[in-house]
Amino acid sequence: DIVLTQSPVLAVSLGQRATISCRASQSVSISSINLMHWYQQKPGQQPKLLIYRASNLASGIPARFSGSGSGTDFTLTIDPVQADDIAAYYCQQSRESPLTFGSGTKLEIK
Amino acid sequence: EVQLVESGGGLVQPGRSLKLSCVASGFTFSNYGMNWIRQAPGKGLEWVAYISSGSSYIYYAETVKGRFTISRDNAKNTLYLQMTSLRSEDTALYYCARGDRTSPFAYWGQGTLVTVSS
User: Fold this and answer.
1) Which of B46, B101, B108 sits opposite A47 (nearest CB)?
2) Which of A35, A58, A90 sits opposite B44 (nearest CB)?
């Protein structure tokens, strides 16, 4: 199975940049397509797709969110961070079955 | 507007069975693969099962293989998860989500809670 590793908590000041990382135990890329996706989950809500295939902004998602990376190392960036961004963020790979998620990073405000 | 509405959750004793449903609307259900994903209380997300648009391809997480069965009825726009031999560790909020084999989970339902306890 592909294991995705995320830091559990990230504390950032409002208006600053948040960088959330996700490292895969093996490459999640196929022919230069990076099969890594990012989700936001607020308390009591279902997850919402933010970024697909590493760097593509999902429909309706503000441009403050961006994604980058390839192979085994990926980053979700929120710039600038707003109060509404307080949530858990999960990476997920669709390179192979079983599909796996990272354990999530909780974004907190300093 | 895409909508996914799960139902069928509840309190069930260990070893018993339960069947979840997910009714889809706002898109051509028969064109998309579908998934079940669960989240134990206070924990992260765990993918459970996938079924392709025409039911030709089905995959399961090892934790549920042999106990859970995913299926769909494209005429009724409905996805199912038959769960048998339930264990306490199956306690979770179960989401259905649209997504083909290598696609992201673009749409999620609100979830249905399954509690396995005596």
Assistant:
1) B108
2) A90
Q: What is the mean pLDDT of residues B71-91?
A: 98
Q: How many CB atoms lie within 10 A of CB B43?
A: 12
- The reply to whether residue B59 touches residue A98, judged by beta carbons under 8 angstroms, is yes
> Which residues are within 8 A (CB) of B24 and not within 5 positions of it... i.e. 6 or more apart?
B2, B3, B4, B34, B77, B78, B79, B96, B98
Q: What is the mean pLDDT of residues A8-17?
A: 97
DSSP structure string for A22-90: EEESS--EETTEE-EEEEEE-TTS--EEEEETTTEEPTT--TTEEEEEETTEEEEEESS--GGG-SEEE
The number of CA neighbours under 13 Å toward the Cβ of A12 is: 23
In the structure encoding, which two tokens stand for residue B55, read together?
Answer: 């039911």
